[in-house]
Amino acid sequence: MKKIIILTFLIFMCFSSVNIYGDSIKELIKNKKYDEPEKVLLTQWDKEKTLNTGYMLGRILIKNEKFSEAVEILNFCRTKFNDEKTNSKISKFLKIAEEQLKNKKTETRFGGASWEIKEALKFVDQNKFEKAQEILDRVLKQDKENSRAIIVLALVKMLKKNKTDAMVLAKKALKIAPDDEFVMAYRAFVLFHDGQIEIAKSILEQAIKKNKKFPDTYRIYGIIFAKEGKFQDVLVMADYFLELESKNHYVYILKAVAYSGLGKFDDALKTIDKALDIDGKNDELWAYRGVVCLQAQDANGAINAFDKAISLNPRNVQALTNLGYIQMNMGQMEKAVEHLTQAKNADPSYELAYSYLAMIYLNAGELGKVKELGQELINVDENSPVGNNIFGRALLDSGKTDESIKYFEKVLYVNPNNTDALFNIGKALGAIQKFDYALDNFQKLDALLPGNQEVTMMLGYTYLQLGDGPNAKVKLNETVNLNPDSEFANQARMILQKLK
């Protein structure tokens, strides 16, 4: 009883010294009414995680007998902020909550997932895998059997292309908590990233039967449907999620992806703007708004959105890369190189920035720089498809054709349908007069990329070199008809003139 009285006094004194929550909140605490202060503090905590808010929220949660949540938040504050003056006070309340937890089993706000795990998942959404792993390692150091931390770590490992460790961790999490909907949903996500889509969907169905009110299941299902191009199904899953958690802006992005896939760009932009109403300072949202503007062929809107994202976060690789891409197409090569270089420096594993930079340097004949780009990616991952394609292309354009083929074959060994490697090896085989082998690659590429003008022209040219005039004419005429004003069409017309 004495401990509770002291606790109430300390909470009241804490609010008395800070007036940002208003006199009415202080009055409620004084009268031992803690539900409304909890709601106010949770809203503030969701908006911005500060030491003061977390410290006060932890105390209120103890009063409301939500000891597990209190432990999570107070632990987060102690670890995240590491404030020497406050840590002793936090430890005191942490001890109270931990003692209560021994005798009382309580559900957490996120169904058992700690705040730290949620923070890790946010970093996963942003492709910041090292930061996510740092948090998860810290959680698992305190609790080696935390199944939710283990399954999220499995996801991180899979996204970092470490399949072996990912599968071991996923199996471990399943063994610890086979019926936990969180573990089930994120195990499905791990399997999805391993290409086991049908098994992943089956597990998600089981997770929904287990708990229809766990929002992440619907979000993960939506991501899988987006991968399959089933955009109406994506909208259904996104709506299910938003009924349960309306302020998660990443689901608005998922919904916008669906609208974009359906060609409804205005609806996509409106959806992103709803998310921006929730969190207008989120650079990821502004970056994705730029992507939707690009899809809608609104270059000015895209530039404005990417500029806003970069102003909020100068290391936003998606915004930097896409802005560089726009500038490259506008002929502003110096600006494009500047932004693309910033993107790859911010994230050395972000391959798209390397691809665009390589295109610029290839067109400028700066093959040494192209080779360096490829080598940088190969140093990160020796099997990097983009790295090997870039390095091989530098060799090919340098006249080292036989050597270049080895790099393209390396890519195709891992993924026989890699379109860049198929094009590059077809071009290389043609350069050494092996047109029959080149034809196989260009025919496969034509099936994978129907209507690609450069591919149809190369296929027509290869048919011609093999003495197959009729098929050459078909493909060259197709090249012209796809876009009569392009450089590829001009080249095709020149070859057709010689065939008359």
Structure, explained:
This protein is mostly helical and 500 residues long. Among the domains are: 2-103, no CATH class; 348-437, Tetratricopeptide repeat domain (Serine Threonine Protein Phosphatase 5, Tetratricopeptide repeat, Alpha Horseshoe), CATH 1.25.40; 450-500. The chain has 29 helices and no strands. The relative contact order is 0.03.
Please describe the topology of this protein.
Elements: H1 2-16, H2 23-30, H3 35-47, H4 51-63, H5 67-81, H6 84-103, H7 115-125, H8 129-142, H9 147-159, H10 163-176, H11 181-193, H12 197-210, H13 215-228, H14 231-244, H15 249-261, H16 265-278, H17 283-295, H18 299-312, H19 317-329, H20 333-346, H21 351-363, H22 367-380, H23 385-397, H24 401-414, H25 419-431, H26 435-448, H27 453-465, H28 469-482, H29 487-499
Helix pairs in contact: 1-2, 1-4, 3-4, 4-5, 4-6, 5-6, 7-8, 7-9, 8-9, 9-10, 9-11, 10-11, 11-12, 11-13, 12-13, 13-14, 13-15, 14-15, 15-16, 15-17, 16-17, 17-18, 18-19, 19-20, 19-21, 20-21, 21-22, 21-23, 22-23, 23-24, 23-25, 24-25, 25-26, 26-27, 27-28, 27-29, 28-29
